[in-house]
């Protein structure tokens, strides 16, 4: 269902933990991401999306987490999350980068299957 949600025209961005599957889904769908990575590969995947220009990482400065992921995952301030989501939705650069990477991915033959 995540692929269908991301593919819906009403979906303009996604809030994700950035597991590998959701990371691929976001790239293929061309949706910018507000990332809340917690453990495992999630922080690395979020950083990749950030370097691609299509992601803001909640609790990060310039894509680098201020605290360990596990330390802040349960304590995200609602105002901080709201501000980060609004910045992703309101900044056309995130959307442009996401569309550009989606086009590249599709040109290379698609995404995760």
TrEMBL record:
Pfam families: UDPGT. The keyword Lipoprotein does not apply. The keyword Cell inner membrane does not apply. The lineage of its organism: Eukaryota, Sar, Alveolata, Dinophyceae, Gonyaulacales. GO terms for molecular function: UDP-glycosyltransferase activity. This is Glucuronosyltransferase. Keywords: Glycosyltransferase, Transferase. SUPFAM superfamilies: UDP-Glycosyltransferase/glycogen phosphorylase. It comes from the Eukaryota.
